[in-house]
Specification:
Chain lengths: ~280, ~290
């Protein structure tokens, strides 16, 4: 246990096999039943293979069941049908094996930023002092060093999200789920956070599933994009983004970027979907 | 361009074609100047507080000397001072103060701890909480002082009956506060802990208890007064020691000055306890936004 937490950034992903998907979603379907009302199908038949170390974005309008899907992947919700497979092992309904981060930073207000960052390790049974020793150099390296002894209330939204993301990455899980982590940030902060996220993704070599409303954000960050249809959520389209990395900001004018954007927007707004539901 | 649009606005609003034409023009077109009270210097507030105290004491003394009020019922600062010197000379005052103080502190700590334990434990099962809730509500509504004679009979006239009353006065308050804190725990924090692989025990110790802490500590402020009231109530009913006994005795012998001595010492005790609770609260709720009563 104590050895595995010493994960140094900049190491290649520990999983050498590229043949086997890191994470496989197999026919995930979920219905919500509330009282006598007819069941509501949130997602239907979602199947997806995610390669080790890949950055995959899911985009879709609100109400396409993204949160349901993430809760199932995180093991917080038992799906009506289907399986979640991690490294070939069925982990459906088991929590603690993939990390999960929400739009809300969910920092514990009574803990300092350092103790928030180690929260995941602590839950996984790592001794507090040992966890702090792991986290401190990383906080220095990723721009949180000044805030170690601060409480979350005194930090800006961007810094709070950084701490939350570092907490998510520090947990010893190869797959991390990010559910619109930057949606509440202003445009400039969001831009810096996206670049910061890519740095960490490269350094830690994790597999990332990223949910967003923002098509530009998805294309800028991802290797692969899945477009979800409105309720019940299904994978309507799936394609690779082969723009070379590292990507600069001017990538938004590249022809491939524009083609990918058109493809996404066509799918999102086809079928006479009301445009305002996208802003929610 | 922009200027034009703005200056045209009122005209457009009055035009019959505008959809807003039927709206009445507001009467107060000048806007409202918002008044802000400027905060005084700390030294001015302090001076005023001392000034009011001196004026009250001085006025009281003067009024009795001029015969405006009857010192037999109202006593006077100088009489209270003399009474104070006399009881100190008798040497039992310290013992009585210590008795009340001890009963209050032990009752306060015990009652608050029992209450917090009950309130927090209700998190473990929503069903258990639902079953227990009416009992807590009823016990909260019952005037605890009515339990006094019963508690004296059960626990005797020594310190344990005073402690028991202080516990009865304080425990429900903290139990209700802790339970309110437990219900206000952010579900997403619970979800986060579970998604990290945490168990119910982790959620309880690392999320529920710290989240409920501001609720619990804010109940402690109220508990100071209640624990003192419990101890004094016990001493009123039957006791060999304590400030409550002194006050009761003084009342039965029409010794108004001595009553005031008891009250003043009680007030000083309350201030000391209040300071201690503030310190505790600060220590246990760091990072959380707490407004002290």
């Amino acid at each position: 246990m104590s050895q595995s937490i010493m994960t140094e950034p900049a190491l290649p992903p520990t999983e050498p096999s590229t043949l086997r998907p890191k994470l496989r979603l197999d026919g995930l379907t979920h219905e919500f039943r509330t009282g006598g009302a007819p069941p509501v199908k949130a997602i239907e038949g979602i199947s997806l293979d995610v390669a080790p170390g890949a950055f995959v974005s899911l985009i879709g309008q609100s109400g396409c069941g993204k949160s349901t899907l993430f809760n199932i992947m995180a093991g917080l919700l038992q799906p009506s049908a289907g399986r979640v497979v991690l490294d070939g092992e069925d982990i459906t309904g088991r929590a603690g094996l993939v990390s999960y981060m929400l739009q809300k930073d969910l920092l514990l207000p009574w803990r300092t930023i350092l103790d928030n960052v180690i929260f995941g390790l602590e839950i996984q049974g790592v001794d507090r002092r040992e966890a702090r020793a792991v986290a401190e150099p990383l906080m220095d390296r990723y721009g949180l060093g000044r805030f170690k002894t601060h409480y979350p209330a005194s930090l800006s939204g961007g810094m709070r999200q950084r701490a939350a993301l570092l907490r998510t990455l520090l947990c010893n899980n190869d797959v991390i789920l990010l559910d619109e982590p930057f949606a509440a940030l202003d445009a400039q902060t969001r831009f810096r956070m996206q670049e910061w996220l890519l740095t960490l993704w490269k350094d830690f070599g994790r597999t990332v599933l990223f949910v967003t409303h923002d098509v530009d954000e998805a294309i800028f960050l991802s290797d692969e994009i899945c477009v979800l249809s409105p309720r019940p959520g299904r994978i309507a389209d799936r394609f690779d983004v082969s723009l070379p990395r590292p990507r600069g900001r001017n990538v938004v004018t590249a022809p491939e970027f524009i083609r990918a954007k058109e493809r996404c927007l066509d799918l999102l707004f086809s079928g006479g979907q009301p445009a305002d539901s996208e802003a929610a | 361009m922009t200027d034009n649009v703005l200056s045209d606005m009122p005209a457009a609003a009055q035009a019959t074609s505008s959809p807003a034409a039927h709206l009445k023009r507001p009467l107060r077109r000048k806007g409202v100047v918002i008044a802000h009270e400027k905060s005084w210097k700390r030294s001015s507030i302090w001076t005023l507080q001392v000034g009011i105290f001196v004026a009250l004491i001085g006025g009281w003394e003067l009024a009795t000397r001029l015969g405006l009020i009857d010192p037999f019922f109202w006593s006077s600062p100088s009489r209270i001072y003399n009474a104070f010197i006399i009881v100190i000379g008798e040497g039992t005052l310290f013992q009585d103060t210590w008795f009340t103080f001890k009963a209050t502190i032990i009752g306060f700590l015990l009652g608050s701890a029992i209450g917090a334990a009950i309130g927090l434990s209700l998190w473990w099962s929503i069903n258990a909480a639902a079953v227990v809730q009416p009992y807590i509500v009823v016990f909260n509504a019952v005037p605890k002082i009515a339990l006094g004679p019963l508690i004296i009979l059960i626990f005797g006239i020594g310190i344990s009956s005073k402690i028991a009353l202080a516990v009865a006065f304080t425990a429900v308050i903290t139990a209700l506060a802790a339970y309110a804190g437990v219900r206000a725990v952010d579900d997403d924090l619970v979800k986060l802990t579970l998604s990290l692989g945490g168990r119910r025990r982790d959620v309880f110790l690392k999320i529920v208890v710290p989240s409920a802490m501001p609720w619990i500590t804010s109940s402690l402020h109220i508990n100071i007064g209640l624990a003192l009231a419990g101890a004094i109530a016990g001493e009123f009913i039957s006791s060999q020691y304590g400030l409550g006994k002194i006050i009761m005795y003084a009342g039965s012998t029409y010794d108004m000055a001595l009553i005031w001595v008891g009250i003043i010492i009680l007030a000083l005790l309350a201030i000391v306890l209040y300071g201690a609770v503030n310190w505790l609260e600060h220590k246990f709720t760091r990072g959380q936004n707490v407004k002290t009563i």
